[in-house]
Amino acid sequence: MSEAMTQTMAAPGLLARERIVAGPRFNRWLVPPAALAIHLCIGMAYGFSVFWLPMTKLLAGAGATCTGAGTGTLLFSTSCNWTVPVVTSTFEMFIAVLGLAAALWGGWLEHAGPRKAGFIAALCWGGGLVLGGIGVSMHQLWLLWLGCGIIGGVGQGLGYITPVSTLIKWFPDRRGMATGMAIMGYGGGAMIGAPIAVALMKHYGHGDAAAGVAATLMTMGVLYIIVMSLGAFGMRVPPSGWKPEGWTETKTSKAMVTDKHVHLDVAWKTPQFWLIWGVLFLNVTAGIGVISMASPMLQDVFGGHLIGLDGVTTLSAAQKAAVAASAAGLVGLISLFNSLGRFFWASISDRIGRKMTYTLFFILGMALYISLPTFGHLGMAGAFVVGVCLILSMYGGGFSTVPAYLADIFGTQMVGAIHGRLLTAWSAAGIVGPFLIAHLRQAQINAGVPHNLVYDRTLYSLAGLLLIGLLLNWMIRPVHEKHHMDEEHLAREKALQHERQGGEGAHTAARGSFGALGLVSWLAIGIPFLIGVFIALQKAAALF
Predict the structure, then answer these.
(1) Positive or negative: CA dihedral 486, 490, 491, 496
(2) Helix (H, G, I), strand (E, B), or coil: what is residue 21?
(3) Per-residue confidence in pLDDT tens, the chain, 544 aa
(4) What is the pTM of this model?
(5) 150 with 97: CB under 8 angstroms?
(6) ∠327-333-339 over CA atoms, to 5°?
(7) Residues contacting residue 495 through CB under 8 Å, at least 6 positions apart
C-alpha cells in the first residue's frame, strides 16, 4: 500500500513534460495542427486594428471628446473618450512584452515542456482579452493595457515560442518547413480573427461597433482559451534519440549546420547570436515600415488612379471614400502574403540554406524598396502592389526562417530558449520601426515635400537598413567548438528536460498511422484558415 502511494505521489502531473513523451501509436503530423491552434489565436495581434476606432467612440456626447486631455487623465477617466494614439499603444505594449516574456521564460519552457507552457499561454492571452474587455466595459484604460497589453503580451511570448523547439525535434529532416507551418499561423491569425471580431461587434452592439467592443473581447478571450488549450494538450515531445522512420542522420556537409549543441547561457554571449539578432531586427524594422504606411502610401501616391480617375487631382468626399476602400484591400493582401510567405520561404530555406535565404531577403528587398518610388511616379499601381506583397512575404519569411537558422548554428537542444532571447529584436523593431517611419514622413511634410513624394526617401532609407542587414548576414560563421556542450553537460540538460523517461522507446515511438484523428485535426485548422484566405482575397479584389 505504501509503495502504491509512493508511486502515485511520484507520478507526474497532467501538465508535466514527462506525461507527453510520445508513444508508439503517435504520428508526428499531429503536432503541426496543435501548434497552429496556438499561433492562429495569438496571431490576432495583427488584427487588433479593427478595435481602435470603435474604442475611441465608447462614450456618447460632444463633451466626451475631452480635447487636450493627456494620457494620465485618460488612464482613469470614465467621462473622456480615448484617443487613437492611446489605444494603439496596446499593440506596441503586447509586442514589447512578447519579446521580454519569450526571453525571460524561454529557458523554463524547455524544461517545463510545450503542454504546460502552451496552457499558461492560453490563460494569459485569452484571460488578458477578457480582462481587457472588462476594462472597456468600465472605461478604464489602465485595465485595457494591463489585460491585453501586459498579461496578453506574456501569453503572446509563451505561445509564440512554445511549438518551435518541439517541431524542430519532430522534423529534423525539414526544420524550416515545420517551423514555417506553425509561424504561418501567427501571420494568418488576423485573417480569421479580424472578421470574427467585426461580426461580433456588430452582433453585440446591434449595429454599433463601439457598443459591442467589450463583449467581443471577452467572447474571443474565452474562445482563444479553449482553442489554445486544445492545441497545448495535443502537443507531444519525441523521446531522446528519436528519428523519423527511414531517415538517417549523417554528418552534414553544410558548414553552417552543426550536430552539436550550445547552452542558452553561452549562446547569447556569442557574436553569432548578436549578428542574427541584428539581421532579424533590420528585416523586421524595414517590414514594419511598409506595414505601417502601406494603405496611406497607396492613397497618397496613386489617389484617383485607384478608381480609374486618371488626371483628376481634386476628389470629392465620395471619391476619397472609394479610394480609401480600394486601398483597404491592400491590408487583406498583406495579411495573406505575410502568412503564406512564412511557410514558403522557410521551406525554401531547407533546400538552399538559411544564410542564402536571408541573402535573398536583403538583395531582393533592396531592389523592391528602391523600385517602389519609380512604380509610383509611373502610375504603375499593379506593380507597386505586387512589390509590397513580395516585401511582406519576406517580412513573414524572416520570422519563420530564424528558428531553423538558430538550430543550424546552436543545435536543437535549447533552440526554443535561444529563440526566445532573440525575439527581443522583434520588440525593439516594433518600437523603432514605426517611430522612425513616422518621423521621416513628418520631417519631409514639414519641409514642404508633396504628399505623393514623401515616401521616396523613406523607402530609400529602408533599403539602406537592408544593406546593413546583408552585411551582418554575410559575417555569420559557425560557432567555435569551445562553445559546444560536452557529453556530461548535454546529459545534465537532457535530464532537466526529462528526456530519459522516453529514451528506451526512441526506436519504436511515433510510428502510428495518420488516421481519423489526424484528418479531423487538420480540417479543424485548415477550414478556418482557408475561409480567412477567401475573405482576404475578397477584400483585395477591390484593388483590381
Answers:
(1) positive
(2) strand
(3) 444 434 434 456 889 888 898 989 999 999 999 999 999 999 999 888 889 889 988 988 655 778 777 788 888 888 889 988 888 889 888 888 999 999 999 989 988 999 999 999 999 999 999 999 999 999 999 999 999 999 999 999 999 999 888 898 899 888 899 889 889 999 888 889 988 998 999 999 998 888 999 999 999 999 999 999 999 999 999 988 888 887 776 554 466 788 889 999 999 999 999 999 999 999 999 988 787 666 666 766 676 666 566 655 566 666 666 656 666 566 778 888 989 999 999 999 999 999 999 999 999 999 999 998 888 878 787 888 889 889 999 999 999 999 999 999 999 888 999 999 999 999 898 888 877 777 777 788 788 877 667 778 888 889 999 999 999 999 999 998 898 988 888 788 877 766 654 455 677 888 888 889 999 999 999 999 999 888 888 877 766 6
(4) 0.88
(5) yes
(6) 150
(7) none
Instruction: With CA atoms as reference, report the closest residue to 357 among 341, 370, 368.
Output: 341
| Annotated domain spans of the chain | 47-60+71-174+207-239, 252-497+519-544
Cβ neighbours, 10 Å, residue 25: 12
Residue 61, φ and ψ in degrees, nearest 5: 105, 145
Phi, psi for residue 12 in degrees, rounded to 5: -70, 150
Cell numbers standing for residue 441: 514622413
Nearest one of 290, 297, 301, 299 to 326, comparing CA atoms: 299
Q: Is 471 left (phi over 0), alpha (psi -120 to 50) or beta?
A: alpha
Residue carrying the nine cell digits 509590397:
388
| Cα end-to-end span (Å), the chain | 75
484 has which bridge partners? 262
Identify whether the C-beta of residue 385 lies closer than 8 Å to the C-beta of residue 295.
Answer: no
The SS3 call for residue 139 is: coil
**Could you give the count of Cα atoms lying within 13 Å of 539 in the half-sphere of its Cβ?**
20
Instruction: Quickly count helices (H) and strands (E) in the chain.
Output: 21, 0
CB 481 within 8 A of CB 262: no
All 3 cell numbers of residue 321? 471614400
User: How far, in Å, CA of 182 to CA of 169, rounded?
Assistant: 14
- Whole-angstrom Cα distance, residue 381 to residue 387? 10
Cα 385 off chain centre by: 22
| Amino acid, res. 489 | H
252-497+519-544 has which fold? Growth Hormone; Chain: A; (1.20.1250)
**How far apart are the C-alpha atoms of 107 and 460, rounded to whole Å?**
39
Neighbours of 270 (CB within 10 A): 16
